[in-house]
Specification:
single chain, about 400 residues, alpha/beta, Aspartate Aminotransferase, domain 2, Aspartate Aminotransferase, domain 1, seven-stranded mixed beta sheet, five-stranded mixed beta sheet, about 15% strand
């Protein structure tokens, strides 16, 4: 008897969550651009509202286009279910709020996207939730920070913007031994193509789907994937907080995810080539990219990642002004505080994503004024390197 084959990643990216439309035969999921769904009688409505049936009621609750995106997202992360949101921060904040109450404790690595730092250090503190920030690669530091009331262990890997790699399997062992808290991982920089945190015992994987999942710099979205037990309350809280993704954005996200594998191969390749070029440049003090053999966490990255992603950072020999001159001299790379699209983007974390962090917090996170972040697009690597070379000649 022939054993049924598990579909590969690219097959899931194209086909998961979608099928031929039964009414029209369309091979692409339609955009159900409607806010409300009608019923022929009250009993049908009651069954839908009480979830005795799977009928959609109101798009803030669910919508066929949104549901298709959630099914595809779940398949790509190897999860039971997922929830999509109007932005990455909506996904992060809703997931976190679904798991904590006043008096609870969170342990988070220090190397985070600036918006997430603000959520934990400012917003959550107002509601009586304490956060302990620890070094991303120091397991003893993390373990000593865990308390009896720790409900969340929050991680990013690779980290933003210094591309540190968190050993997910090791953290999973520590948390399992020390508490009943849930492990949440921001997987945006890796994408599900390069890394699937749930395979290493983590509970929820989170994305700014604006980045690699959307992939074209034309949609703002977020996503959370995990067990049905954890996703159900997240979806219920999403109804209250209102951070739902609109149907057209969900359709753009579906379109983007179909080519995720193809795009990530190019992002991975370009970042590796540019990282190797920068490592040999005498005007560069240090390159942060887990694909380099010189990266302190290269062996961990090889163990838990398929590829090393399309983002790298590097420090110049010099100060903030010199770094600004280099950035402003680039022609192909566009100055923009995002990542994951076809266009190569450049930014300085100290003037963009981490601008609102206190200087001492940036220093603790290893974010210097001369640090520059590159999101490698899908252009030819040789053209990106040529652009960097002409900019280096001007500083």
């Amino acid at each position: 008897m022939t054993r049924e084959r598990e579909p590969g990643f690219s097959t899931k990216a194209v086909r998961a969550g979608e099928g031929v439309d039964p009414q029209t035969g369309a091979v692409v999921t339609p955009i159900f651009e409607t806010s409300v769904f009608a019923f022929t009688n009250t009993r049908q409505l009651i069954d839908a509202v009480t979830e005795k049936s799977s009928r959609d009621v109101y798009t803030r609750w669910s919508n066929p286009t949104i549901t298709a995106a959630e099914r595809k997202m779940a398949e790509l992360e190897g999860a039971e279910d997922s929830a999509v949101f109007s932005s990455g921060m909506a996904a992060i904040s809703t997931a976190v709020l679904s798991l904590v109450a006043s008096g609870d404790h969170v342990v988070s690595i220090r190397d985070l996207y600036g918006g997430t730092v603000g959520l934990f250090s400012d917003f959550m503190r107002k509601f009586g939730v304490e956060t302990s920030f620890v070094e991303a690669t120091d397991h003893e530091d993390l373990e000593s920070a865990i308390k009896d009331d720790t409900k969340i262990i929050y991680l990013e890997t690779p980290t933003n913007p210094t591309l540190k790699i968190v050993d997910l399997a090791r953290i999973g062992e520590i948390v399992k031994r020390r508490c009943t808290g849930r492990i949440l991982v921001d997987n945006t920089f890796a994408s599900p193509y390069n890394q699937q945190p749930l395979r290493f015992g983590c509970d929820l994987t989170i994305h700014s789907a604006t980045k690699y999942l959307g992939g074209h710099n034309d949609v703002t979205a977020g996503a959370v994937a995990g067990s049905k037990e954890l996703i159900d309350p997240i979806k219920k809280l999403r109804r209250t907080l209102g951070g739902v993704l609109d149907p057209h954005a969900a359709w753009l996200l579906l379109r983007g995810m179909k080519t995720l594998a193809l795009r990530m191969e190019k992002h991975n390749l370009n970042a590796q080539k540019v990282a190797e070029y920068l490592e040999g440049n005498p005007k560069v003090k240090r390159v942060y990219y887990p694909g380099l053999n010189t990266s302190p966490q290269h062996s961990i990255a090889r163990r838990q990642m398929k590829g090393f992603g399309g983002v790298l950072s590097f420090e110049l020999e010099g100060d903030l002004d010199r770094a600004m001159r280099l950035v402003d001299s680039l022609r192909l790379a566009l100055l923009g505080a995002s990542l994951g699209g076809g266009e190569t983007l450049v930014s300085q974390p100290s003037t963009a994503s981490h601008y609102f962090m206190k200087p001492e917090e940036r220093k603790k996170a290893g974010i210097s004024d001369s640090l520059i972040r590159l999101s490698l697009g899908t252009e030819d690597a040789e053209d990106i390197i040529a652009d960097l070379e002409q900019a280096f000649d001007k500083i």
